[in-house]
Amino acid sequence: MDTAQRLRLYYEACIPMGLLVLGMFHYGFPPFDDTTLTLVPGLLMCIIITYYLYNRLSSNTDDTHVLLGTQTSMYRRRADPGRMWGGMLVPLVMFALNIGDASDGKHSVGLGACGAWVLSVAMAWTFTVRLSGLSSGCSWALCVAGILALALAGPWERGNTGVHVCLVAMSAIAQHMGTQFVVRKLPRSFTLGEAAAIAQGICLALLDLAAQLFTRKQGLVDPQHMCVLVLEAAGVGTALIVCVLYMAPQHSQGVSVKDTVWMCVAAGAGAGFTTSIIAFVLGANPMRWIVLAVLGSQTGRIVLIYWFMLMACATAIYAWCAQTPTSSSKLMLHIKRKSYHILAVLLFAPAYIATPLVLHIGFTIALCVFVCAESVRVLCLNGWGTQMTHFMRRFTDARDVGLVVTAHFYLLVGCAVPVWLDNTRGCVEAALAGVLALGVADTCASLVGLRFGSIKWPATVKTVEGTGAFIASLVVAVECVRWAKGFGYDTAFGYDEMLGYGLVGSFVVCVAMGVLEALTDQNDNLVIPLTMYAAVKMLIHSDTISWVSVVVVAAMLAMSLIPHSTLIQLHSVL
Asked: Measured between alpha carbons, how far is residue 557 from residues 111, 376, 442, 517 in Å?
């Protein structure tokens, strides 16, 4: 690995690590009343941060070690494995989710805010230790020590020590098995960091759903709890649909009655299982609640009509473009790809400003549809696989060379996860972090950088002009959202608007995301929205930390003036 590559990786790592350190020392470990019990996960994260900074300055490349049971050829090619993101991204997001939410009792069911933070640290700790290159005995000892420390001295909201040990151990084992499953069953589709972050997120959702099944809240049908439960139960139901489709008889081509029967059976099994889970936990009919939530208000009906009209126009335009001969240049490919980003802004931003609840439910349904459609494509059921593959490959780039086409998934997940995490609370800048970063800023950066870019960042194809367009467009988009949110919300579901706003923090967030977009080798549709969500929660709504962040950014800029060879010599001395 040359000096320029190591320099890029080092400053890429400084952004999420700086955010987490800044947040922990400003809010606590994290912002709970009993700071003594929250000291253990905070200290473990500090150890993880120190390790990754040391790793970025060392001469060892990030692909020296791979996950047990996998091979280097199973990961996405021509990309940094991103172990740092596998150990940092989910804890960073869980920490940001706790800010302002733990003390007001919004997470009264499931794992709770404290439990989710502890489990994310446990998964990050075991992931980092197992890939650290230590001997097998030493790594196992450190994993067990971390699990026991988190179980015995973690900031749990409820339960006993035995339950805590089981939860932490299950999360650590599940994230390892989940990452291994994603890498082996979907080869060349993800980097190690992306696969680990996805597996950790799925594990947290499943454990939260399991906790809700054991702590049933009959009659508790508030919108926030219901939205989370619908999302998690729908995810399990979709996984059941995929399993049923996987068992379907394989046909090379043509429409098959058996395939159609299998698809109907799978859809029925998934829908029935999802409905049963929600009815068991809450004792309520989820389908009736969803229909009333979407169609019970005039705002929801208007949003649905708006979506149908916009999708009809977009479908007509894409159908016309498909029949019209176009240039095969790189610029035209980028325009085609980024047109979906613009469509995402038009679909999601007005809907969230009007009624966040409808958008939350819509994202859940869209993700289930995407997963089922991709399963049909990969399995070539009913003769649709070839046609769908031909259509999807027209919008892919070098990162979509694996079994699964991930471009549309990452775009949807990047826009949806901040909305799911915000969960109708009304923090618009955080909830729309993915929509603004991907739909507005990333589109401007790609087109401007490709058309006018000439000065490149070290060890990357990204340009300084594109980064400038990213930052400028994101600042304008965030300010527009800040202005638009003053028009209020549908108060029937208890939305509240966070008031404090730091202009300095907003600018720092935009600059940090612009630099991260230029430096990261991971899929920016996943990394940037989640990092921006965490940054917004930490920086924008706190004037004090906004000014502290300016000092931190200034220090980072000063460090960038230090020659990288000097940093490497300092590392060798230490």
From this structure: 40, 49, 23, 17
